[in-house]
Amino acid sequence: MNILQINSSIRAENAYSSRLADNLVAGLRRQTPAAQLVVRDLAKTPHPFLDETALIALSTPAEQRTPEQAQRVALDDALIAEIQHADIVVLTAPMYNFGIPAQLKAWIDAIARAKVTFQYTENGLEGLLKNKQVYVIQTAGGKHSGTETDSQSTYLRTVLGFLGMTDVTFIYAEGLAMGGDAEQLALQAAATQIAALAA
Ligand SMILES: Cc1cc2nc3c(=O)[nH]c(=O)nc-3n(C[C@H](O)[C@H](O)[C@H](O)COP(=O)(O)O)c2cc1C
């Protein structure tokens, strides 16, 4: 059993999403003590954005790549290998300006690779990252779930499904900046859901 935890908050300390992810992972590891854990922090170790240089490197046959191109492709290869080996993926998605963190988008751009993590066949699209249980922890200052401003979950469900990850559970901690007891209630609700998932 391999667990991959992807932290994407820009806050190195005290990020709610990373803390909730830690709690979920701790619960999952209590269930399966032999589980191996890989934590990738996309803010501490930012992945380069997909740009034209990367696109050209990726579309150049491996044996014709320059050392720089090979190096760039290797960075994406490492992320792909991590997700291929994971049985459980714990993804954090804090809301920034009504979307996922740019760092998380860079990770998605890295792992979405034709003929490796998805392919088109005569029967249509096939996602190749199969048989994974995915948990997405969404944090937000306001409240968005169930409304059209929750574009994060729609996007993540679509792109993860495209890659073959169809078993996705969302855990929300919202209203964290709304004052009063909103923060406490949101964290409590998320903790209760996490405790049930890891029971
Ligand atoms: C740059 C920035 C942009 C934000 N944009 C939004 C937003 O569009 N909607 C919202 O509800 N909260 C927004 N927030 C609040 C965060 O979602 C909230 O602080 C959340 O706790 C961040 O997750 P973290 O604690 O895991 O870092 C924003 C926060 C920051 C720092």
From TrEMBL:
Documented EC number(s): 1.6.5.-, 1.7.1.17
Keyword annotations of the record: Flavoprotein, FMN, NAD, Oxidoreductase
Coiled-coil parts of chain: none
InterPro entries listed in its UniProt record: Flavodoxin_fold (IPR003680), Flavoprotein-like_sf (IPR029039), FMN-dep_NADH:Q_OxRdtase_AzoR1 (IPR050104), NADH:quinone_OxRdtase_FMN_depd (IPR023048)
Pfam families: Flavodoxin_2 (PF02525)
Catalytic activity: 2 a quinone + NADH + H(+) = 2 a 1,4-benzosemiquinone + NAD(+); N,N-dimethyl-1,4-phenylenediamine + anthranilate + 2 NAD(+) = 2-(4-dimethylaminophenyl)diazenylbenzoate + 2 NADH + 2 H(+)
Binding site for FMN: 9, 95-98, 139-142
Transmembrane domains' residue ranges: none
Domain Flavodoxin-like fold: 1-196
Assembly with partners or alone: Homodimer.
UniProt cross-references to HAMAP family, sorted A to Z: Azoreductase_type1 (MF_01216)
Family that this chain belongs to: Belongs to the azoreductase type 1 family.
Function summary: Quinone reductase that provides resistance to thiol-specific stress caused by electrophilic quinones. Also exhibits azoreductase activity. Catalyzes the reductive cleavage of the azo bond in aromatic azo compounds to the corresponding amines.
Name assigned to this protein: FMN dependent NADH:quinone oxidoreductase
